[in-house]
Amino acid sequence: MDPDAIAAKEKWVARKSRPSKKPEDFQQILAKNPYARALATPLRRCQLTNNALPSFFLQGFNLMAHPETGIPWYVPRSLALAKKGEPQLQLNKTPAAFTSALGYTVYILASQHILRAMQDPKGYGMKQKNKMRNMAQRRGISTSKFLSAAGWREDMHEFILRIMRRRIVENLVALTNLKRGYVVGCSGWEDALAKPQIGTFLWTGGAGEMEEGTDSPPEFATLDITIGRKEESKTKKIPVHNLRRLLGKDKLAELRETLPSGIFERNVVVLKHKQQAVDVEMQLWRLQGFLAEYRDLYRDLEELPTNEEDADQDDYYEDGNE
Predict the structure, then answer these.
(1) How far apart are alpha carbons 269 and 185 in whole angstroms?
(2) How far apart are CA 144 and CA 111, in angstroms?
(3) Among 1, 39, 115, 251, which one is least packed by beta carbons within 10 Å?
(4) Gap between the Cα atoms of 108 and 130, Å rounded
(5) Given this model, what pLDDT does residue 11 score?
(6) d(C-alpha 143, C-alpha 91), whole Å
(7) Helix or strand run (H / E) with residue 166
């Protein structure tokens, strides 16, 4: 009956205390970091490449019955609206569906090139069907009824691109209409670099058609900005998104027409590093990866010395040259 002995025994069986409603400073920093949030998404495995990655870098597909015919189709359910008529700002939350999903979610690398290659019946196309069927069998789902008749859009790579662009336009319009300074138009790069709390640079190329030979940001372009006190001289890399490429001509024109303020007619737009803007930053980064062609990476690899050049350099230094 010793209270100290009882407390010592119950110490290891007591329920864990509920987390504090007020997040700690480090939790607040992570919540505003789009890259940390992307890497913190649950690990899922790509059914084509068998690579396990955070689900942010994958595109999930669910079997959903057609509302009229009842035939199941693979659809990117995560890109649906959260509520009818409202854009979905919470990227990693499954929205409420208007029709029920059938069974599990299949994940594939979020790449337009891979989705386009799935149309090849001798390549990814056949592999995709077999792996989806095996996945369902392991989970105990009857495949004879649904998977044999499941439909896959031939233009899935274009369909997903249209939805991703539409969601970004909707969310940029919603952020701008809040009129809290989350989206700021700039007269040029010098003006943009002077803005405080920069989250992302959005390059539009200005109003009108671009002149031939005009420089545009390459894939995965970044700019270094100075943060903190001047004596500390810390730098931070800020992504630069080319909206002409990411949104396309039509969606960029739609964005400008929807916002008569003329913000997106400026050459450069700054998206502030605020909690409300983090989801849009993640959507832009995800679309960047979806459209990526990695031309700069291949160009750098071509410039690397070949094995023969390496051997010549080794002989040169072995002869005593420096």
Answers:
(1) 4
(2) 29
(3) 1
(4) 14
(5) 72
(6) 30
(7) helix 156-177
